[in-house]
Design brief:
Blueprint: H1 7-27, H2 34-40, H3 42-76, H4 80-85, H5 89-108, E1 133-137, E2 142-146, E3 151-154, E4 159-162, E5 168-169, E6 174-175
Antiparallel strand pairs: 1-2, 3-4, 5-6
């Protein structure tokens, strides 16, 4: 239920995957009994699949949010019949891949490489001094500012900040 919802967990799964690959590649230089060598390769594969699972769950929710938002906007303009036609599978796949790649890049880069001046999407935008950290929510295609140490959370429904020491939960602004 929480897969792909917590940026801290997504980052941790990437770090474990990358670290386990480094360890396995280093250990593979040492002669080891073949069955044990085969078992050692299972660990980085499992951690990599966990990371990819996080990315896929996040991308699916983001693409579905974009799909629902597009349909709701079309319905709001009175184009009920055209609402489904405006969101073919190719467009859903485009949003899925876009969110997947964004999440992969965001979890692979160091946390302190994050933008600090809210220039996430607009070069003229600056975050206020009491909220210097800028985060991007690709599902809503928006950027927002959070206080130092806070975690930026995003879902297809909204963007919010969780206080330092807590994590994101759900799609509706909850922290745990």
């Amino acid at each position: 239920m929480k897969l792909g919802r917590c940026p801290k967990c997504m980052r941790t799964s990437f770090l474990f995957a990358a670290g386990s690959w480094i360890v396995v590649l280093a250990v593979s230089r040492v002669p080891i009994f073949p069955p044990i060598a085969a078992l050692i390769w299972i660990v980085p594969i499992c951690f990599t699949l966990l990371w990819i699972g996080h990315l896929a769950a996040f991308a699916k929710r983001s693409a579905q949010g974009a799909l629902h938002r597009g349909r709701d906007e079309a319905r709001g303009r009175g184009h009920v019949a055209a609402a489904a036609a405006n969101w073919p599978r190719r467009r859903f796949l485009f949003f899925f891949v876009k969110a997947f790649v964004f999440a992969a890049v965001a979890t692979a880069f160091p946390v302190n490489a994050m933008a600090q001046s809210c220039s996430c999407s607009d070069p003229n935008c600056t975050c206020p001094p009491n909220q210097p950290n800028c985060f991007i929510n690709p599902a809503r295609q928006e950027s927002f500012c959070c206080s130092s140490g806070d975690t930026g959370c995003g879902s297809p429904l909204l963007s919010w900040c969780c206080p330092n020491g807590t994590n994101c939960y759900g799609d509706n602004g909850n922290c745990y």
